[in-house]
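Before a colleague's protein record goes any further, I have to sign it off. Alongside the sequence sits a line of tokens, each denoting a local backbone shape. I want your independent view on whether this chain really folds as the tokens say. Where you disagree with what is written, explain briefly why. This is what I was given:
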Amino acid sequence: MSDTGLVPVAEKVSALAAEHAEEADRTRRLAPEVVAAVREAGFARHFVAKSYGGSEGGFTEFTQAVIAVGEGCASTAWCASLSALSARYATHLPRLGHDELWADSPDTFIVTAQPPMGKATVTQGGHRLSGRWSYVSGVDFADWALVCGMVATGGEPEARFFALPRKDFTVVEAWDNAGMRATSSHTVIVDDVFVPEHLSYLRADFVSGQNGTSDLPAHNVPFQAVGGLTFAAPAVGAAYGAFHAATDALRGKKVNVSQGVDLCRASAQIDAARFLVEQNAQVLDERTFTPRLMARCERNATFTADSVVEAVGALVRAAGTSGLSESSPLQRFWRDVVSASSHVALRYETAAVRTWPAALIGE
């Protein structure tokens, strides 16, 4: 397992984010000092090559760091997670693209829009791209956006990713979710922008994890194995935050048997969820990409989402009315966990049902 020092720094980020979490929830925006702390901690550079000043870190360390941040603020953990993994996705760009993104700093903050909602045409030296992408988390403070679009080729259209500097896209504030309010998951609009060839690559490479530019292990991982981890780890961290908030709300009070059962079961569910996401990270670090293990990764992520939603619901029930006070962080963690766990990557119909029959019985 890598040890870049990210985890102990993440614990400091968590403490700072917790101080600003109530304000961030109210204003729907992370405090500038929290964004700076995430960047300085090394999340954006975690998977970047050392040749560009990056950390070349691993998935287990990354997962533990995201969970740590999530205990303080789920929105901060979500953005930290995506900043690291978006940079990993950008490593599929040609080498000139790496130079443009990281030549000046390994801490370039990149955001990703995976659905192929744009349209592009081939032109001399690259493509012209237009499109509109919703729910692009962290875009308020992004330096670059990695967006996906369909390209007309004369035959079957192909899906490609395009890397765009901040000046080439517009942000429309459209995120109004009840939870994860400070993730800045807004809409990105691109209007007939030229994207040079070195800032584009095939979506098929992203899905397969076969990186033609970098041979670093973390840059060659199938998306199926890693996708759910992106969103499950922040939710697990937030569930721990909810547990601490619930026990704080009950401190000094007489706890009845029903409340004790809820606390006991919730703590076990959250620990089990952590085990499952760390099991996923271990698969990624050990590079054991068999169909069965990749299906297990998707199962783990979806089951984790179910588990933490149930656990936090029990914590709210145990804490009672005081836990639902607007001044209580418990209700914020509850909203955040439910919102995070609703992500399409954490649904059984998109993950487990799609992969398990083939992986287990050879369909």
Notes: The beta strands are 110-123, 126-136, 144-151, 158-165, 170-172, 186-196, 200-202.
